[in-house]
Amino acid sequence: MKMMRAAVGLWVLSAVICVGRGHHHLGHGNDQTVQDTVGDGSANSVSLVNEANKEFSFQLYRKLAADADSQGKNIFFSPASVSVALAALSVGAQGETHRQLFSGLGFNSSLLTQTDVDQVFQTLLQSTNNTSQEDASEGTAVFVDDDFKSKPEFLQTLKQSYFADGFNVDFAKATESADTINKYVEEKTNGKIDKLVKDLDPNTVMYLISYIYYKGKWETPFDPKLTKQDDFNVDENTKVSVDMMNMKDHFHIYHDHDLNTTVLQLPFNSSYSMLLMLPDVMATLENAICPNHVTKWLKAMVIPRRHDVYIPKFSIKTSYNLNDVLAVMGMTDMFGVRANLRGISEEPGLKVSEVVHKATLDVDEAGAEAAAATVIKILLGSSRFPPPVPVLKFNRPFMVIITERNTEKILFLGKIINPTI
Ligand SMILES: *[C@@H]1O[C@H](CO)[C@@H](O)[C@H](O)[C@H]1NC(C)=O
Ligand SMILES: *[C@@H]1O[C@H](CO)[C@@H](O)[C@H](O)[C@H]1NC(C)=O
Ligand SMILES: *[C@@H]1O[C@H](CO)[C@@H](O)[C@H](O)[C@H]1NC(C)=O
Ligand SMILES: *[C@@H]1O[C@H](CO)[C@@H](O)[C@H](O)[C@H]1NC(C)=O
Ligand SMILES: *[C@@H]1O[C@H](CO)[C@@H](O)[C@H](O)[C@H]1NC(C)=O
């Protein structure tokens, strides 16, 4: 029986809620200072891991978008949270299993060791909690069966570098241990992700969990009085009715001619922003988008210009089993008999049973108590862009990114095909 009970469940959870309540405050676009996020990890390791994480975001996006299960569905996930979970797992992986995880995450093993990676994640996890105060929290947890002997070094590294909360549970008591895990997750995601675990796999000896929660208020809220029912064109033949929010104001907008895509930056009242990308042809954007685009767009959006912007109000939930997608990205051994997780335990037959990711996104307009501050803006060259006020309407499929403006860390990434499903 003991031999059978040898699977690690890897659950990656994200919850995000964006509430458009806030005060009026512009001028963030000029705030280009790059924060020094170097803690224990050296500057070089931090930038190597940062770059790898950004690349990984879009690689994973493309694999998810191409997956048969994703067709006709919205896509929304937290690449940051998936990276953390896999990096934490790689602490306990050895040999080829470790090599696959490292290379799948985009880490170059001739430039980075596992210890470097651990130190960088320590810095990154801390700075998510620090930079945004109550807005964002990110962390990990490990639930270990009472009878399972895991290596103390593994748990030690998870605690120290990944801030893992550690729990001993009796997985034989299925209901009780499911409750323990569900309660933990519900609390960490402010109730956004509940009833995560229904049927505990009796073979599971460990649950490794990574969660991320983000709640942002728009720097400039939408006026709920202007929200009207409107059509959203899912495709040429399908229209759905949505609550369309509207705001006429100065916005950071960039038209990327290479991708035939218009990008809108909606800043939160923090160092985070939501980028909304409206392409002429979704495939053109999806297939090409990479970290350099995000850098280019943020750089180019210096001068806000007056636009009439329409964005649907929506609330979506997603759930993925990432086993196949990660296998396609080269991380295959961890799921099978070739798995080498001897850094977690010497018990034979230890493997990863499943990697699950859940995310939610809620976007709405303004709260009633939104205050407006008066801002005097001096617009350079505005006379060269005379009225009428151009309209930008997100009334057909678009992509969305939630990012930190200084580090360009990608907290969330997705594609909204139909805001009503
Ligand atoms: C926006 O952020 C500032 C600085 O953190 C804070 O003082 C202010 O209360 C925030 N405004 C809202 C509406 O949350
Ligand atoms: C890893 O880094 C080394 C040294 O800079 C470089 O030669 C090699 O091409 C890199 N490997 C990959 C896969 O990028
Ligand atoms: C971040 O904040 C959450 C919630 O307060 C906490 O549980 C978690 O341990 C923190 N993570 C880090 C890295 O400090
Ligand atoms: C985060 O805040 C803690 C406590 O205030 C501090 O010790 C730590 O250095 C900060 N980390 C980063 C990366 O800013
Ligand atoms: C962008 O649109 C123009 C005009 O419709 C077209 O000629 C061009 O091929 C498009 N570019 C891409 C990358 O799709």
From TrEMBL:
SUPFAM superfamilies: Serpins. Keywords: Glycoprotein, Secreted, Signal. InterPro entries: Serpin_CS, Serpin_dom, Serpin_fam, Serpin_sf, Serpin_sf_1, Serpin_sf_2. Residues 58-419 form the Serpin domain. It is found in: Secreted. Residues 1-22 form the signal peptide. SMART domains: SERPIN. Pfam families: Serpin. This is Thyroxine-binding globulin. It comes from Sander lucioperca.
